[in-house]
Amino acid sequence: MIKNTQGMIYGINGPVIRVRGNNRLKMLEMVLVGDEKLIGEVIRVDRDEAIVQVYESTAGLKPGEPVISTGKPLSVMLGPGIIGNIFDGIQRPLVKIREKSGEFIRRGMSVTQLELDRKWPVKMLVKAGDRVEPGTKIAEVQETEVVKHFVLVPPDIRGEVIDVAKDGEYTLCQPILKIQCGPSEKEVTMVQEWPVRKPRPYRSRLELNKPLVTGQRVIDTLFPIAKGGAAAIPGGFGTGKTMTQHQLAKWSNADIIVYVGCGERGNEITEVLEDFPKLIDPRNNQSLMKRTVLIANTSNMPVAAREASIYTGITLAEFYRDMGYDVAVMADSTSRWAEALREISGRLEEMPAEEGFPAYLPSRLSEFYERAGMVENLNDTKGSISIIGAVSPQGGDFSEPVTQNTKRFIRCFWALDKQLAYTRHYPAINWASSYSEYFEDCQDWYREKTDGTFSTKRAELLRILQEESKLLEIVKLIGSDILPDEQKLVLEIAKVIRLGFLQQNAYHENDTYVPVMKQLKMMETILELYAGAKRLVQRSIPVSVIRKTGILDEVIRMKYTLDNEHLSGFDRLVDKIHETLDQIGRDYQVRERKGLE
Amino acid sequence: MSVEYIGLKEISGPLVILEGVKDASSEEMVEIQVEGEKRLGRIIEIRGGLCVVQVFEGTDGLSLTNTRTRLTGRPLEIPLSLEILGRTLNGIGQPIDGFGGIFPERRRDVNGHAINPVARRYPRNYIQTGISSIDGLTTLIRGQKLPIFSGSGIPHNQLAVQIVRQAKISGEENQNFAVVFAAMGVKHDVAEFFKTSFRRSGVLDRVLMFLNLANDPVVERIVTPRAALTAAEYLAFEHHMHVLVILTDMTSYAEALREISSSKGEIPSRKGYPGYLYSDLASIYERAGMLDDREGSITQIPILTMPNDDITHPVPDLTGYITEGQVVLERTLSQKGIYPPVSVLPSLSRLMKDGIGEGYTREDHPQVANQLFSSYARVQEVRALASVIGEDELSDLDKQYMEFGQSFESEFLQQSIDEERDIEHTLDLGWMLLGLLPREELDRVSDDILNKYYHDNDSEGGGLQSWT
Ligand SMILES: Nc1ncnc2c1ncn2[C@@H]1O[C@H](COP(=O)(O)OP(=O)(O)OP(=O)(O)O)[C@@H](O)[C@H]1O
Ligand SMILES: [Mg+2]
C-alpha cells in the first residue's frame, strides 16, 4: 500500500471520525475506513486532522486503524440496471447486500452498484467517422420493457468515432466505442461514474409550461406542479405525506420515478416493493416498477448515508433527464436529511443557527431544489426533473426552519392539515394555505387540453371554498340555522366540493387516479348544480328541499359512479340535475298558486 | 486484555473520561472496579488516548483515583436462551429474580442490526384485542409498532394489560406467543401491577421482564429497550414466536437520553433533547416487524406519557413520525369515567387498511370506521357550537349529532376492563350508533353497504318533515 494515501483513525464519535497522519486528504473525497474498509467521506480538513463521516456503523472501530484515500469523490455508477432496482443511500443494491449478509444489514459489505457481468442487448446509434460531443446518444439498450436507455458520451469526451462495436450483447465494462479525443484515443463503455454532489451539465434551462399530471384532483386542478418544478409537502405525522408521494409515484405522468425513502419506515419501502410490481401503468400496460428506482435509507440505517441518499437520488434522476426523459423525484422526508446534517454538524461542534440546525441549511436546501428544472440537454433533447419533497415539521409547526427555508426554494406548497386528517378528509391538503405558482405557467396547457374554461371554473371553485370558510366562522358563533338560504346553499355546495371533489380515495380502484378531463367534468357538474340551485333559492325555495331530493349526494358520489374515460355519464347526470331542480320549481309554482287561492 | 487503567481523568454526571488508553474500540464495554464493587461502562467517544465512558450503574462513589478500569474487548451483549421466558432481568439483562444466571445458547449485541427493507414482510394479520375502540377504529396488526400516547394518571397500563390478555390472532392457534416487557424509569408499583396482571391471566411463564425502575441508573435505561428488543428478535426470528413487546415509559427513556447528552455537552435541539432523538428512537421502534422468510413477528406497543398532555412535545411528536400510527388517550374522557379513554380523532392505525375488510374482518369495516371518525368529528363541531349558543338552540340535526356523540362515548368507547368484544360485536355496535343519524348524513358509506347494514334508529325520522 502506498504510504501517503493512508492515514489512521485518531478519534471516533458516532458516525464522525478524526483522521491523522495524512495531510493530503481532500474535501469531499471518499475514503475507506478501518480494517473493514467502511465507506466514508471527508467533510472537514484542518491543519493536522481531517474529519470523515462514515456511511456505516462505527461500533468496534479503534484508533490506529487505517484510513485509505481513494482520490475521488463519493460517486454513483450510471448505466443500465438502475431502473427497477432498490439501492441504499450510497447506491449499494439492497438485494445483493441481502444475498451477502442475510435479512439484517451488516456493515463492510462491498458490493458493486450495478451488475458488471450482466449482458445487455446494445444497438449502436453512431458509426465510424461521426463526431460526438458530451451527451451524444451513442447506443440504446432496452433497460426494462418501458425504459429505453441511451448510452451517452461522458461529459469530458468529444471527438471523432474511430471504432464502433457491432450491435449485440455486451457487459457494462466492455468498450463499445473508440473515440479520437484530441491526441489520444478513448474507449467508451456503458457506464460512467459521477460525483453525487455535483449537478450534471445541461445546455440551458427552459421555461416550465406543462403540468406533471398526477390524477389527484386537488393537485391537478387547484395546485398543480409543473414538469421541472419543485413542490414541498409539509405536514405533521400521519397527515398523508407518504401516501401522497406514493400516489404521485404511481400515477404521475413522468417517464421515470426516483423514490428516495430518506430516514423513514422500513415497512413503507416494503409496501412499495410489494405493490409497484403488481400495479399496472395504464399508459403502457406494464408494471409500475419498470419505470421506478428506489433509494432506501430507512430511519434505523446509518445517519450519514441518509444525508447522501438525497444526492444519490437526484444524480440518478439527472442521468435519465440527460437521455431526454421527464423524471420525478420524491424525497420522503427532507426533514430527516436536514436532521442528518444537524447531527453531523453537532458532532463537529459547529456553531448552530436556528434550532440547532447548521447555518448552511438554507444553502444546502437551495442547492438541492435547484437541481429540478426543465432543460435542453447537451444532446439537444429536452428533459426535466420535478422534485416533490416531504417536510416533517417538528410538532407539526410550519414555522420551523426546514419548512420555512424550503418555502423559499419551491413554488408549489401542499400544506397538510392535521384537522382534515383527523376527520379523515384525504388527501388532507388544506386548500386555504396551499398554493402553486405553476398554474399560471401552465395556463396554455390547460386551455388547449380542456375546453378553455378550466381556469374560470377553478377560480369559481376556489371562491366558493373561500366563502365557505368565512361563513363557517359565523356558524361557529351562532349556528347555521339563521343564515339566509343563499348562504346555506354556499355551505351545501362547498360540502359537495369537499366531499365530492377534493376528497379522493386512494384505495378506490376508480378514484385513485382521475384524468384531468374528468376533473373538469366534475367541476362543471358541481357548478351546474350550484347555478340551478341558486335560481331556486332566489325564488325563496328552501335549501332543505333541494337537499331532500338526494341530488347533492348523487353528485358527491359521481367520482365513484361515473367512468374515468367515457364521460357521457356526466351529460346524463347534468340532465338529471336539471330535471330534479325543474321539478322542484314546478311543484313550488303549484304550491304557490294553491297558497294564493 | 488485562491492562488496567488506574484512576480517571474526569467525572461528569453519568460519564467518566479515561486517559492514556490503548486499543479501545468504539462502543466497547469496560469494567470498572471501585472499592471491591464492579460496574459496567460503555465507551461512547474516543479521541486519541482519551475515552468517554458511560457508567451503567452511575458514578456515585467514584473518584479520580479510586477506580481500576479494564477493557473487555466486547460490545454490550446479553445472554439468550429459551429459558429466559418467565424470567425477570435488570435493565441491562442481568437476572434479578434470584433464580440464578442464564445459561446462554448465544450472546447478542444489544444494538442489533437494521432489517434490510427487501427482507421485510409487509404486516397484514389483524390482532383482535377485544377492545372496540382499537379493533374497530385503530386496528392492531401483527408486526406493527403502535404506541399508546397517554398522560400521567390515565389508565394506560390497564389498557396495555388488557391488550396482552385479550389479544387473539384470527383463525390461528395462539400457542407460539411471548411477551417481552421493558420498564424504563417506571415506579416499582407499576412494574408490580404488570407482573400481578400477567400472573393472574396465566401468561407469566411466557413473559420476559426487563426492569429499570425509577430509582435505577439512567445509563442503564438507555440499554433497556435495546436489550428487550434483542431478546424479542431472538425469540421471534430464531424461535418463530409471535412476540408482543411493551415498552414503558418512553418519555423516561428520552429524558435519560437527554440527561446523558447534556453531560456530554452536546448542542441541544428542541426542549433540550439531543438532535439525534429521532434517529435514536427509530433505532428502537424500527425493530418491530416481520421477515419474509421466517415465521415469527415483533409487535411493539410503546407507552409514553405526554408531558403536560402536549402531543407536540418532542417525545410523542418524534414517536408519531416513526411508528405506524398511535392510540391517543385523553384526560377529559378519562375524567368522565370512560375507559379506555381513547381519543378517537387523533388516533390512527396506518396498517389497518391492509388487514381489515372482506377476507380479514368484515366487508363493511373500512367504511364504518371511516364514517364513525367523520361523524364523531362533526360531533366536536356541534359541541363547540352548543357551548356558545346553548344546546336548546341547536338544529334538530345537530341534536341528533349530540345524541350520537353521547352514545358513541358511553357505548362504543366505554367497556369494562375485562370485557372482550369480538369484531362482529364491535362493528354491529358501530351500526347501532350510526342508526342514530339520518341516512343522508352517512357520506362515507356506499349505498350497497348502507342497504345491507343501516337501520334507522330514529323513530320519527323521514316522511313527516318532507316538504311536498
Ligand atoms: N389519500 C389518502 N387516502 C386514504 N388514506 C390516506 C390518504 N392519505 C393519508 N391517509 C391515511 O393516513 C395515514 C398516514 O398517512 P402517511 O403515512 O402518508 O402520513 P405521513 O404524513 O407520511 O406521516 P409520517 O410523517 O409519520 O410519515 C395512512 O396510513 C392512511 O391511513
Ligand atoms: Mg410518511
Question: How would you characterize this protein structure?
Answer:
- The complex is a heterodimer of chains A (597) and B (468).
- With 597 residues, chain A is α+β, with helices and mostly antiparallel strands.
- Chain A has 18 helices and 28 strands.
- The relative contact order of chain A is 0.09.
- Chain B is an alpha/beta fold.
- Chain B has three domains: 4-75, Elongation Factor Tu (Ef-tu), domain 3 (Beta Barrel); 78-354, Rossmann fold (3-Layer(aba) Sandwich), CATH 3.40.50.12240; 365-467, Bovine Mitochondrial F1-ATPase, ATP Synthase Beta Chain, Chain D, domain3.
- Chain B is built from twelve helices and 21 strands.
- In chain B, the strands form four sheets. In chain B, strands 9, 13, 15, 16, 17, 18, 19, 20 and 21 form a nine-stranded mixed β-sheet that branches. Chain B has a seven-stranded antiparallel β-sheet with strand order 1-7-4-5-6-3-2, with no helix packed on it. In chain B, strands 12-11-14 form a three-stranded antiparallel β-sheet, with no helix packed on it.
- In chain B, strand 15, helix 3 (188-200) and strand 16 form a beta-alpha-beta unit.
- In chain B, helix 6 (277-285) crosses helix 7.
- Chains A and B meet through strand 1, helix 1, helix 4, helix 6 and helix 12 of A and strand 5, helix 6, helix 7 and helix 9 of B.
- Bound molecules: adenosine-5'-triphosphate and magnesium ion (MG).
- Residues 241-242, 264, 332 of chain A line the site of magnesium ion.
Q: Quick gist of this model?
A:
With 597 residues, chain A is an alpha+beta fold.
Which keywords apply here?
heterodimer; A: 597 residues; alpha+beta; 10-stranded mixed sheet; 6-stranded antiparallel barrel; 18 helices; 28 strands; B: 468 residues; alpha/beta; Elongation Factor Tu (Ef-tu), domain 3; Rossmann fold; Bovine Mitochondrial F1-ATPase, ATP Synthase Beta Chain, Chain D, domain3; 3 domains; 9-stranded mixed sheet; 7-stranded antiparallel sheet; 21 strands; disordered C terminus; binds adenosine-5'-triphosphate; binds magnesium ion
